[in-house]
Each structure stands twice: as C-alpha cells, then as structure tokens.
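Project standup — Tuesday

K.O.: blocked on the structure for the chain from last sprint. Re-posting the sequence here as requested.
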Amino acid sequence: MKRILVLQHVAHEGPGLITNIAKETRLDLFLVRVYLSEEIPDLKLFHGIIILGGPMGIGDVESPQYPWLKNEIDLIKKSFENHIPFIGICLGAQLLSYAAGGNVELLKCGTSKKQIKPEVGWDEVYATSLGMEDPITKGLINPLNVLHWHGDRILLPPNAKLLASSHRCKEQLFS
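H.V.: unblocked you, prediction finished:
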C-alpha cells in the first residue's frame, strides 16, 4: 500500500473526499496537522504529498503566525528533487507555484484590472487546450461546476502547463 503525506492547515479544511478516494484506491493517508505543530516526517517514507488549503497565503510565509509555511516550501522543493508526486489544493497550489519559481497576486477584475475581487461562489472550471491532452484533465470534456473561495491568483512558474481555467481566474489547475 502506498503512503501519501497530507498536510492540513486549519481544523475545518481536512482531506474530506480525498479520504474516500484513498480508501477506494488503497492509499494510506498520513495526516499532519501543521497548525497544531505536528512534526512532518521524513519525506522518504512517502510515495506522494498532498498539501491542502487554508486562509493564509504566500504573503504569510514570513509571518510568525504560520511558521510551518517556510518548511512546506522546502518540503515541496525536496519533492521535486526526489521526483515525489505532489498535489497542491488552494494554498497548496500557491506554495507549489512559489517553490517552482512562480508567485501569487491578488485576483483583479474589470478592463483596467485594478479592482480586487475574490472569486467566491459556484462557477465552471474547464480544461484548456493543453488540458484536453493531459492525462490528468483529459476527462474534463464538459466544464465542472465547483465552489470557489479565493482572492488570489497564481502566477505560474516558467515550466508549468495550464490545464484548467475558470471564467474569472485563468489559473485553476496546472502541472
């Protein structure tokens, strides 16, 4: 059975459906609640990593309130070096982009792109042309209606492939 490390940032944003998928696919999830100062085990013990979301962002990396964020960026860089698969959800995706040379900015809208406006509510996510060919998202032939709750936009790292977008935020899924 393959072991997957899951990092959780706040009590109310746990692995949810990921737990069901893990059971169905015979994956062993090892949950670390970083907000409770639980120690992250040696990366070599795992076949993959999932970093979940949270209300903090890249702008909080230096904050003493979230001391684990720097450690997570280092962990992601080590996962690159060791070719360990990684999934970042929301904050996890921000950290992934940042660790790979990308960044994050506030989500803006309008023709001048000066008004800051979070993407909150239900909207479609659809595969890009690259996403239609990628094994991860090629099944996303029809748009998927999902709940959005974020005020940031990921600026993709140089080698990233954009796989899915929404109407308000281009960077929804990347590899």
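K.O.: great, moving the ticket to review. DSSP finds four helices and twelve strands in the chain. The mean pLDDT is 90.
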